[in-house]
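Exercise 3.2. Students should predict the tertiary structure of the chain below and write it as structure tokens, then compare their answer with the key that follows.

Predict this chain's 3D structure.
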Amino acid sequence: MVLSADQVSLIGQVFESYVLEHHRDEILSILREADDQAHYPVVVDALTLFETNMEIGEYFNAFPSEVLPIFDSALRRAALAALQNSADPAQLSLKQNLHARVSGLPVCPELTREHIPKSKDVGHFLSVTGTVIRTSSVKVLEFERSYICNKCKHVFVVKADFEQYYAFCRPAACLNEEGCNSTKFTCLSGTTSSPTCCRDYQEIKIQEQVQRLSVGSIPRCMMVVLEDDLVDSCKSGDDITVYGVVMQRWKPFHEGARCDLELVLKANYVKVNNEQLAGVVIDEEVRKEFEDFWERHRNDPLAGRNEILASLCPQVFGLYLVKLAVAMVLAGGVQRTDAAGTRTRGESHLLLVGDPGTGKSQFLKYAVKIMPRSVLTAGIGSTSADKPVTPLVPWTAKYPAMPPKLHYLNLEMFKCVLLPSPPVMAF
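Answer key:
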């Protein structure tokens, strides 16, 4: 079943009136931007939209892949209407690359998932929460080609097939409605000229959040396709919520070879959850206690710092220099972006090297307890190729025959490698 012309018209009219009512200021701010070729998102709350017209919600849940392009077309018409009704249209310019990003789905098992979708979810618009474990480089994707019929000179457009990794399927006959039926075409964007219809493209892999799984469960992974303004919207390690359509894709068929289907999530909107407080609420009482503490040590702030260090990892006596280094890494820094647009992370790495029994693992375990997002691992089950560091110390009788055990701590703002060797600390 496909949407009829009346249904398409209804969806477009309802969405156009909705964005003009709720997102007019956002559309006008986009029209004031200088870059006419950039891609601009307009984030729409699904609950508010569905309350406007419940029939739209039914169509969206049943045919998300057909309704989303209708939303984009209606958004462009709304932008044109806002431009024409503006008091100062000279400072505005119409943007063609507008995208409706749907978020805020109702919290129910049919639409909101904390686990990776399965094959029964193909074709449904879902909200999936997970952790980014891999990001690919941003690529240029050719999404459509224009062909001209050698007989009737009719020009038609062929779109890349998402289900076949964006491969182009050559049409069997001319698509002219007058009934040309010719089988000879010429590609207008062939090998002699560069492709004209391209967009940014990136793939990421998300994994189920370990803290949301039952004991003994193995987290599953899923590929997510990002396009246009969604590329580079997240990085590895981010906790994100992806709103998109569950689809399947396969590689070209080969005789005698088995066809492997892959479930992917074609993202419509990506929400990064790292900036949330992760359950930490700073009320007025805690804020007043913080201010009173530094008011007492206003004349000697180093004494206040030492008091904080004394409470850091209390099971280890002394080692204030090491505790100071751990506290600084846990506090983190501020990400910096230079004039060329290159991002420099604000989090530093810490390397602690010491003899066995000097409390290195205690610092690791304490850091895991106080950080809301952390992963504590050991290199016991790793091969030599998996270990990023090797001890560069003389191999004497003081050390056992087996290589030293490596401990790793990978936090959102704390990365530490510990080696049992002479005590050294470096940043």
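Discussion points: The chain has a mean pLDDT of 77. DSSP finds nine helices and 19 strands in the chain.
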